[in-house]
Amino acid sequence: LTYWYTIIMKLKDITLYEDEHVFVFNKPSGLMVHGDGKNTETTLADMIVKEHPELSEIGEPYRFMDAGVEKIIPRPGIVHRLDRETSGVMVVAKTQKSFSYLKRQFHDRQAEKHYTTIVWGVFPEKSGMINAPIARSKADFRKYQAGRGKRGVERDALTLYRVLGVIKNEEGTFSFLDVVIKTGRTHQIRVHMKYKNHPVLGDTFYSPEHPYALGFNRLALHARSLKFNTPDKKDLLFEAPLPKEFESAKALVL
Question: How far is C-alpha 88 from the chain's CA centre?
C-alpha cells in the first residue's frame, strides 16, 4: 500500500510527547520505522535525521552486506520498532544515555506495552496466555512460525490476551482484544494469533486467504499504550488514540 501522508508528514504531526531525553510518537500504519536496504520509501528514521541531524549518531545503526560491501543505515535513537502496518505508541531516545537506559528496560521486559487488535473468530475464554516459541518458517524464510513448521533457532515467546468484545455481522465473526507481549519477537502477535487459528484482521502476509473486513484496508493491530521509566526516574505512560477504523469496529461490539 502507498500512503500519501508519509510524503508530507512532519514529526510534529505524530509527536505525543518530547523532553530532553525522548520523543514519543504515534506512528501511523504504513510508515516504516527504519530502512532495510531494499525499500526506498521515507521512514521514521529518515524523518528524524532530516529534522534533527544531531541525532543521527544516537543508537545503533543497521549494518548489512550488499554485494560484498558493508552498508550502514542510521537508526537514530530507535529503541524498539513496530511493523510498518502497525500503528501506535513508540519511544525514541534523544541521547546515547537515554538510548542505553531505555534499551535495557526493553531487554529486561520492564517496559509495559498494550496492543489493541481485532482477530478472526471467537475465543472460548475471556482471557488467556499463548506460550509458544517462535522461529523462522520452513516454508517461507521471510515469515516466522509457532508450532509445527519451524526451522533454525527457537526463541521463547509469551503473549497475554483479554477479550474486550465480539463482533458478528455478514462478513464474519471477530474478537476485539487487548494484548500484552512479555517478549518482543518479530511479528509476535501476528504469529501467535495465526497459531491459535485466530489471525489478525488485515494480515495479508500471514493469512492471505482472509479478506479485509469491517472497513479495514490495513492490519488491525495498534500499539495502544506504553509505560516506561526515564533516566531521571520519571514513570511515563502514553496512549495513542484508536484509529478511526478501530473506533468504527468498536461500535459494532456486542
Answer: 8
